[in-house]
Amino acid sequence: MADKISYEQIEEKFTNYLCKKKQRKTPERYALLDYIYNNEGYFSAEQIHAALQETYRVSLTTVYNTLNMLIDCNLVIRHNFDKQKAFFERAFYETPHSYFVCCKCGAVKAFTDKQIRMSIKQKNFTNFKPSHWLLYIYGECKKCKKK
Amino acid sequence: MADKISYEQIEEKFTNYLCKKKQRKTPERYALLDYIYNNEGYFSAEQIHAALQETYRVSLTTVYNTLNMLIDCNLVIRHNFDKQKAFFERAFYETPHSYFVCCKCGAVKAFTDKQIRMSIKQKNFTNFKPSHWLLYIYGECKKCKKK
DNA sequence: TTTGTTGCAAAACGTTTGCAGCCTC
DNA sequence: GAGGCTGCAAACGTTTTGCAACAAA
Fold it and tell me: Where are the beta strands (DSSP E) in B20-86?
């Protein structure tokens, strides 16, 4: 949940994870980490795949495979805003997020609220080691209310 | 987001919704509403389908169809804890929930926290009409930490 | 050289849809 | 009786898996 970490430290975290698990440091894996960490916001696997075509070509299979690793080592967060597809977002560089989700059109808007953040942070967990949290507030957005 | 509502009032809400939308009041639809509202917790579509075999047989298609209606009229909440499948829960009878989700084994545990609830309730939204909220705290549970 | 990785195609999975027969209204 | 509803089977979109060629260690 920390902030203020350089990209070198992020890479190091991933490298450590790969070493510990006896997995290989392939260029595809680092290309994906690089993409996620140099772009703000959340992306579908398909979007990441398309974006990577321009720089270092990676198959969709490898995108999914690598995303699962990055989630496993807490470098990436998976969002399941709706039933359809997952979105992926870097876990560092931003404080954990809260989101408005419109039930009608599916629009998503991130926001931060100090009060909410503090009250969640203060919560004590016995038998549970929290890594991150996600708050979704569902409702109806301006556009849909007008209809 | 209210509490203290009788099951008759829930049924009435559904009936009103069906009338307004010019949709029919079939026994299948009420069997599903009844099941969801008389069982605490969250269930997958498959679980609801299996459970209904014992009382009023309903196809999986109708289970999905009806759940989507119940979500549309805010009587049911859909959870997307993980990528796999959705879980469904009655929207009344309980205050909106917060959940621990274990990243390793997928175990989910509901909890309530007054402080958190208050701070979310106090949040003011311009251009957005909130209907409910869901907080997921991800981490590692006791069992997985031991391994 | 060994063993993990890639990328393709095919499978798997939960969910939705098309349609014929059925049931509310 | 008209039109919405059910349930089956088939389709759908996202994600995973099997496998042969390949590359990191």
Answer: 76-79
